[in-house]
Design a protein that fits this description.
two-stranded antiparallel sheet, TIM Barrel, eight-stranded parallel beta sheet, globular, alpha/beta
């Protein structure tokens, strides 16, 4: 097993993306329903995250979206220098207009979503559905690149068939169209985590292009970080579900932060407080319950803990549930419960 200090040596190297410097190589992956402004603030308070990514934002809505009331297109001014806005849409002109709004607001970068395979997104011919029409996907990247000067990221999957050659060709075409960095999730689009990602494909994509490539998919501990770097040669790692389970993981892996026994209790209360700060109570409770399933994935009896939290009806009841679940020491597992990580 690689020593933690060696992991930090990998991660704590600055990287230039689109002419802008990023302080480390560990990013928060965009996750619909989760990487909202409250969760990003929690991650930021622990520190160690190179770049933060928003939830998916609709390109159609973005040009006129009111950030004061939007559920997804909102942020803190302090995070903008390290915040990337992920957009989804089906038309080059629509995506370009959304990217211009993102740039005008002062974000670090814009991320084009070609990775989401949820039916509601694919039915709009957006997300991973665009991998079926490579010409259009490339046209979208080119239109966004021509519309803005800020760094352009592309998040994509292997495709709709298990063909790494196709993924490699797409990566080259995205680079030629003006992408500054790629975030690659090596699963076929219909596969909703039923099979492990094929990390070897990340290495093939990395060797095919000259821009930074970030690996994504089932990185759950420091050993996974080490293996992904050594096996693929990727430039950095984008992590999702493990960040929901342990929002301090960026600080752990990049800065030597060592959480104590009370971190889950404190973290749960802080997450609820931040949600209440940024959203109406009904929305705050709904988002907390959704997050709590992942937050308890590292507990031996995570299903039972999640059930307790789901019974809360208001903020006071939620605080009582948090104290009941996290107020005493609970037995942890070596790896997250994948049934809770679905």
């Amino acid at each position: 097993m690689t020593h933690p200090t060696d992991i930090r040596a990998f991660l704590d190297r600055p990287l230039t993306i689109g002419g802008r410097i990023v302080e480390n190589r560990l990013f928060l992956a965009p996750m619909a329903g989760f990487t909202h402004v409250a969760f990003r603030q929690l991650v930021d308070e622990f520190g160690g995250c190179g770049l933060l990514f928003t939830e998916m934002c609709s390109a159609k809505a973005l040009p006129s979206e009111n950030s004061a009331v939007s559920q997804v297109f909102r942020w803190r001014t302090a995070e903008l220098p390290r915040l990337v806005c992920q957009i989804f849409g089906a038309e080059p002109e629509t995506m370009a207009a959304a990217a211009r709004r993102v740039e005008a607001e002062g974000f670090f970068g814009v991320d084009i979503n070609f990775g989401c395979s949820v039916a509601a997104i694919c039915k709009q011919h957006a997300g991973a559905a665009l991998l079926k029409t490579p010409e259009k996907a490339v046209a979208i990247v080119r239109a966004v690149r021509e519309a803005v000067c800020l760094p352009v990221f592309v998040k994509f999957r292997t495709g709709w068939t298990d063909d790494p050659d196709s993924a490699v060709e797409l990566a080259r075409r995205f680079e030629d169209a003006g992408a500054d960095a790629l975030v690659f999730h090596p699963r076929v689009s219909p596969d909703r985590r039923s099979r492990p990602p094929k990390w070897a494909y990340i290495g093939r994509v990395k060797r095919a292009v000259d821009i930074p490539v970030f690996g994504n998919g089932e990185v759950f501990d420091a050993g996974d970080v080490s293996r992904m770097f050594s096996d693929t040669g990727c430039d950095g790692i984008s992590i999702g579900r493990i960040a929901l389970a342990r929002p301090w993981v960026f600080a752990e892996w990049t800065g030597g932060f060592f959480p104590d026994a009370g971190i889950y209790h404190q973290g749960a209360h802080r997450m609820l407080d931040l949600l209440v700060c940024h959203y109406e109570p009904v929305v705050a409770i709904r988002r907390f319950k959704k997050w709590a399933v992942f937050f308890t994935a590292g507990f031996k009896y995570g299903h039972r803990f999640s059930a307790v939290i789901r019974t809360a009806k208001d903020i006071a009841g939620m605080k009582e549930a948090i104290d009941e679940v996290f107020g005493c020491c609970q037995e942890m597992t070596a790896r997250p419960n994948m049934n809770l990580f679905r």
